[in-house]
Amino acid sequence: QAKADGRNAFRFFDPQMQQLLAERLKLEDDLKQALSHSQFVIYLQPQLDDAAKLVGAEVLLRWQHPEKGLVSPLEFIPSAERTGLIVEIGAWVIDQACAVLARWEKSADTRSLTLAVNVSARQFHRADFATEVGKALSRHGVSGERLKLELTESLALENVAESAARMQELRSMGIHLSLDDFGTGQSSLYYLKQLPLSQMKIDQSFVRDILTDPNDAVLVKTIIGMANNLKLEVMAEGVETEAQRAYLREHGCTLYQGYLFSPPISVAEFERQFLAAPLAATANS
Ligand code: C2E
Ligand code: MG
Ligand code: MG
Ligand code: MG
Hints:
- By secondary structure, the protein is of the alpha/beta class.
- The protein has helices at 15-36, 73-83, 86-104, 121-124, 129-140, 153-158, 160-171, 189-192, 204-208, 214-229, 242-250, 267-274, 277-282; strands at residues 40-49, 54-65, 69-71, 114-118, 147-152, 176-182, 199-202, 233-236, 255-256, 265-266.
- Strands 1-2-4-5-6-7-8-9 form an 8-stranded mixed β-barrel, surrounded by 4 helices.
- The model has no long low-confidence stretch (mean pLDDT 91).
- Residues 181, 203-204 line the site of one magnesium ion.
């Protein structure tokens, strides 16, 4: 096709690329505005144990865009990572999570719940990351045990020695570490063994076809076995049906998260739906 274009064959800026570039710049600009205009909001998705008892929630970021409405993190996290804005956004998410935990601290029913926050590589690899998380905890008077950080395999294995040291630093503050999207990366058991993890999360892509794709079934069973061997908790994400949950439970999974229980919802909605009445009544005060 380029050849047919004749003298235009060596154009550097075809209109399509130019438009993509413009959109990207606009998004980056909008992201900066989003922080200063308080357009970010956290949603919570419940996490349950075997007995269907609530154990906590995952914190999932949303962008309340003035024109586009609620924007998924899949659409803006990559851009935030590229520009480095993720450091500031990520710190804000951790602060918000600590604020919620501080409120939950006040009631015996909610005092033991944990919140799991997703962390980007760019955030995690900053030398002051653990210190900043510690500051957020003390600012809100929350103990580290209540906070869980979700890290990906690629993040953890990028520089194993440095990652292990950083993770140790976080662990020493009581913070729990969970390996997110497990099975999608290239983890070596040898390296994983050296990391102070508390939990593995089975990626939803394996859970989705667990009953129909024998390969996924084998993978999930292997992951659960691996987690058990490493003495780690194992949580399944993306559980949508009772049949999936039953299968997972039968094979030794003990923690669940997914649309079967609830999609991610606002904090106020979460407190209304899942927490005891007294707390829900004060949720917005
Ligand atoms: P993730 O950490 O693996 O989160 C799980 C994603 O699966 C969430 O998408 C959640 O809404 C979705 N999900 C939960 N249950 C089900 C289910 O039963 N079926 C299906 N189909 N999906 C389900 P979401 O909220 O769009 O977030 C996407 C990703 O964005 C997250 O994947 C995480 O990697 C990233 N993310 C979200 N919040 C943050 C954040 O605060 N910081 C960073 N760095 N990344 C974030
Ligand atoms: Mg996650
Ligand atoms: Mg995940
Ligand atoms: Mg995922």
